[in-house]
């Protein structure tokens, strides 16, 4: 008995025929081809279908007339199933049976061979059918990839449109205010008291500031999404940055009778990150705490003492504000997330701050998250890589 050890590249062919002598003859040709095939055999259509499902051959040679399940039935069975649909099937037909050939090709056969099988023709047709099936698989995979990419582009386009729509809407309101106020000044300046003109100028400036803030945030989001933010990573003492932010917000908090506290360890506050981006992240978190806290509450900003094994420095901003529901927490780091909590001092809200915060933290190999329960305040955490000194 002769054994041919299948190699990695060797193609697998399943020969389904109820006549043993046919199976042996075809197998012998295939096994001794210039590039030999691994041959599996099945004595009838039913067994052939089961073997095809289990073994996924590269090609099936199927006899037409067989007991139990005819070749045509087996062919139809295979073509109906996702996992066997793409396996090319070459049908064996008797001489002069053109009708069979027509049936077989219509039912999805890749090709046909007349019995008795000619050795050269068998090898040529097998080779061609395998090559065709392989190109088909390649084209199918390519077109699936293109379809997937197309879907992603459509999703992105939709997201961009939504983004533009909200941004345009948010810019329109302050712009309308500016136009209306300027028109009143223009037409009624003669009769307007100085104090009213001053008040209008203040409102115009306030609207312009809102637009400026939105444009700045939009530019940040755009830069992040284009991969345009390249962090400048250095070692620095994060205490100085946090302190600067806390100082800059103390006055604003005091105007809402909010007490802003800062606690930090004596040492171990050196981080490896981008100073400017860290300041932007901490600023957003402190600004939110001040913006959403009711009057008379406390805010505590903490740099936590890292444990010996910790590779990061954790900064938290804890407030006694309205807290954030689980549902809002899921949306909070998305774009234009203006959620249940409303500013308590008439501050402006673009809903972009936390989405920028999240991405900036990640750009610096850090992370940001929130722990909160509705009605029980919120604590935001920022984790940045630690430098041991
Ligand atoms: N500390 C907080 N307590 C309660 N709700 C908060 C807190 N911080 C954020 N939120 C909620 O999450 C939403 C998103 O916050 P985010 O900072 O992204 O946007 P914003 O503050 O509305 O606007 P801006 O872009 O100006 O920061 C807010 O609108 C608010 O409803
Ligand atoms: Mg904010």
Task: Record the SSE blueprint.
Elements: E1 12-16, H1 20-31, E2 38-42, H2 45-55, E3 59-63, H3 71-80, E4 89-93, H4 98-106, E5 111-114, H5 119-188, H6 194-225, E6 234-237, H7 238-254, E7 259-263, E8 270-273, H8 275-292, E9 298-303, E10 312-319, H9 326-331, H10 353-363, E11 367-372, E12 378-385
Parallel strand pairs: 1-2, 1-3, 3-4, 4-5, 7-9
Antiparallel strand pairs: 6-8, 9-10, 10-12, 11-12
Bound molecules: adenosine-5'-triphosphate and magnesium ion.
The site of magnesium ion has 4 residues, from helix 8.
Describe, in plain words, how this protein is organized in 3D.
The chain has 389 residues and is of the alpha/beta class. It folds into three domains: 12-117, Rossmann fold; 157-225, Signal transduction histidine kinase, dimerisation/phosphotransfer (DHp) domain (Helix Hairpins), CATH 1.10.287.130; 234-385, Heat Shock Protein 90. The chain has helices at residues 20-31, 45-55, 71-80, 98-106, 119-188, 194-225, 238-254, 275-292, 326-331, 353-363, and strands at residues 12-16, 38-42, 59-63, 89-93, 111-114, 234-237, 259-263, 270-273, 298-303, 312-319, 367-372, 378-385. β11 and β12 (378-385) form a beta hairpin. The chain starts with 11 loop residues before the first strand and ends with a strand. 27% of the residues are buried. The model is unreliable at 1-7 (pLDDT under 50). The site of adenosine-5'-triphosphate (ATP) has 24 residues, from α8 and α10.
